[in-house]
């Protein structure tokens, strides 16, 4: 809008400059014609000193002088009319120029007021990125200047960042009974057997472990 107004002002200023030049030219033409008319009026008639046909010379000279005087007066009248028209156009252009200057001053004051209001408000606090209907919490950013990471400074007041979740602990399931039975049976078979009587001999190394009593075994199918 301001650029269009400036272009219009420049165009009208150029028109005013041309109008001034035209007025100066018309004023010079008026002055020149006025001098010529005054000179024609004050010029002495040379017919009085003529020797032959004084009447004809007087009539021809007077007719030519009157024709020249009429032409000069008509040219002077046209120059005055042109000057009046140029003055009217000049006044209209001046009125338009004043109106455009007033509009430019108004827009300049509005822009200065807006800039001062933005400076008083300071940096803009976190702004939402309007990329979807429900932006996530990580889409909130704040202005820290060029080349500065948002994590290099504490977040502004009122900005809630997402809390980190604690690591999950893996729950250890209890061992199934059929998995515990072989271990318990192996532990019992490895224990020394109590033998009664003097003729008891130690068990050979390649002897297989005896199966425990059925009532004490948790899972008899694991016994051989």
TrEMBL record:
Entry's Gene Ontology BP terms: intermediate filament organization; keratinization
GO cellular-component term (any): keratin filament
Keyword terms of this UniProt record: Coiled coil, Intermediate filament, Keratin
Entry coiled-coil feature ranges: 9-43, 69-96
Low complexity: bias regions: 179-214
Boundaries of every IF rod domain copy: 1-118
Biased composition (Basic residues): 165-178
Keyword Glycoprotein assigned: no
GO function term, MF aspect, one: structural constituent of skin epidermis
Segments for region (Disordered): 157-224
Family (UniProt): Belongs to the intermediate filament family.
Name assigned to this protein: IF rod domain-containing protein
Gene it is expressed from: LOC106835314
């Amino acid at each position: 809008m301001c650029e269009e107004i400036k272009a219009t002002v420049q165009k009208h200023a150029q028109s005013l400059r041309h109008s001034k030049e035209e007025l100066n030219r018309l004023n010079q033409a008026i002055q020149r014609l006025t001098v010529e008319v005054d000179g024609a009026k004050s010029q002495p008639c040379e017919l009085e000193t003529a020797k032959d046909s004084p009447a004809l010379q007087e009539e021809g000279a007077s007719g030519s002088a009157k024709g020249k005087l009429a032409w000069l007066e008509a040219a002077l009248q046209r120059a005055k009319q042109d000057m009046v028209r140029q003055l009217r156009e000049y006044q209209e252009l001046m009125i338009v120029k004043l109106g455009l200057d007033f509009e430019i001053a108004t827009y300049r004051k509005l822009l200065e007021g807006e800039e001062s209001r933005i400076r008083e408000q300071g940096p803009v606090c976190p702004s939402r990125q309007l990329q979807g209907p429900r932006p996530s919490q990580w889409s909130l950013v704040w202005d820290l200047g060029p080349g500065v990471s948002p994590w290099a400074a504490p977040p502004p007041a009122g900005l809630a960042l997402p809390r980190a979740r604690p690591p999950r602990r893996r729950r250890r399931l209890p061992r199934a009974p059929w998995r515990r039975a072989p271990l318990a049976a192996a532990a019992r078979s490895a224990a020394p057997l109590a033998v009664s009587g003097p003729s008891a001999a130690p068990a050979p190394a390649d002897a297989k472990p005896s199966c425990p009593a059925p009532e004490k075994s948790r899972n008899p199918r694991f016994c051989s």
